[in-house]
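General statements about sequence and structure are easier to judge against a single worked case. When preparing material for the folding task, we compiled for one chain both its residues and its backbone structure tokens. The amino acid sequence and the backbone structure tokens for this protein are reproduced below:
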Amino acid sequence: MKTQMSTEKGNINPAFNECDEPSIKYTVKKKELGLELKGKDEFSKGQDDYNPYLNRQVEHPTTNFETFIHLLKGSLGTGILAMANAFNDSGYVTGIIGTIIIGVLCTYCIHQLISAEYELCKRKKVASLNYVGVTEAALLEGPKCLRKFSKMSVYVVNLFLVVYQLGTCCVYVVFVASNIKRITDLYTDDATDVRLIMVFLLVPLIFLNWIKNLKFLAPFSTFANAITLISFGFILYFIFEKPFVVEDKQAFGKIQNFPLFFGTVLFALEAIGVILPLENEMKTPKAFASKFGVLNNAMVIIVVLYVGMGLFGYLRYGSDVLGSITLNLPTNDIKAQAVQGMLAFAIFISHGLACYVAIDIIWNEHLSKKVTKSKQFWEYVTRTMLVFLTFLLAIAIPNLELFISLFGALCLSALGLAFPAIIQTCVYWNTTEGFSKAIMVTKNTIIIILATVGLVSGTYTSIKEIIHTFF
């Protein structure tokens, strides 16, 4: 006897139809997904107990280890190279404690987002939702006063995502140009203006972002990841090659510089844009947010690496530390030049990946629907203009640390902290009551206030420093 199960979207994974009994089918699928097999079968209670994990049709699902690596890769980039500068703003004691607290808070908010997505998928009987979909659906479930903002939330979240991704691209342009400048200055009579190097990068960046299929970038990304790891090894060699001197380093920084530290750490730690896609593509999605799952394990390692790079980088270079620790490496050392060149190439390739998200939102979700003729031409125009926009911002403000702090405070305070707290409150607004509801609302209100203070103070401080530095 072959059984045909269906949902609102159609048949469940065709693999189900190859088994003879429903109980066998679901048991096999539950084992693959890492679901607990205790108690009643997930489907024995009827259609109301829809399980999103059992209905996801992923062509090439990722293993726990592959997801773990992707999460590490998404969090280890230019941000970790800026951590020493962040510790210079905070002091090493404040830096250690602050990074750990922010790391724990970020991890908790990611858990909020994941659990809210799962609950909404069950209620809506859909296999998965992206960040925008989760936000819109959550507001529709929340207090009546917030439901009218559900449609607007689509544009708000997309705006923050686009600004964050384009801001990341600006950081990449400044990073690549600054590291290339360090190398070229050694072999030219006069120092090269970093803006001139950006001009030479513009056309290659445009061609890079004309690539529509990320599959063509995959070999370059794999190579870039390899050389990034090698480069980190060399950076650690330079940091630990001599004994540290602690006496002239400050344990506690100035309070007015803390917003810069906050923004930098948020930019470095948060990979909020890839969280839901990674979880949605897993073979065993329940393992992502479990107690000793992919997320917690990855975030522990990430926080330890960031604290280590920030602490020891600051102890090595002190107040002379720059926006990227690569810029502090010995100028005449061939190994340092190799590190700067390799990381410049790796981050150059990453520009195409970062800009891809912004292009997808602006073109695929908005502009393409309004264009009726010459769609391909206008898509290339859109891609070119977005690259040109990041180029102009980088030209205007070629300061790595201020860019990182600005976009970390502006975008990730909202995307990584405030929005998940709002989403969780809305999702469980009508299903919790009494003391539990009071605790949830109080806790999430505190997170929203902290995120708002961080956004306002971090953005204000970064913009003030930008104006003071360049105008």
